């Protein structure tokens, strides 16, 4: 058995659950065993992006959790960060042009 944490931060609340799972449990299975999905019915467990300590993982059905891992359930981004930065830079450039 290994002890891990499963976390999810929704817009209105955050949940951190400590759970003990069998050795060799996949990341996605650990999320199911944690009970977090029952608290957030809007999460699609088959497709939701997952990560460990801030690093997204692509093989959540294969990769086994290790003792002490913090498994994170990510929510979809509301806006693309690159696009937001591009728009902010364009707005700043326009403001500079108008001030000269």
From TrEMBL:
What name does this protein carry? Answer: UPF0125 protein SAMN04490209_0285
**Organism the protein comes from:** Pseudomonas rhodesiae
Tell me one Pfam family matched here: Ub-RnfH
InterPro entries associated with the record: Mopterin_synth/thiamin_S_b (IPR016155), RnfH (IPR005346), RnfH_sf (IPR037021)
Q: Which family does it belong to?
A: Belongs to the UPF0125 (RnfH) family.
Which SUPFAM superfamilies does the record associate with it?
MoaD/ThiS
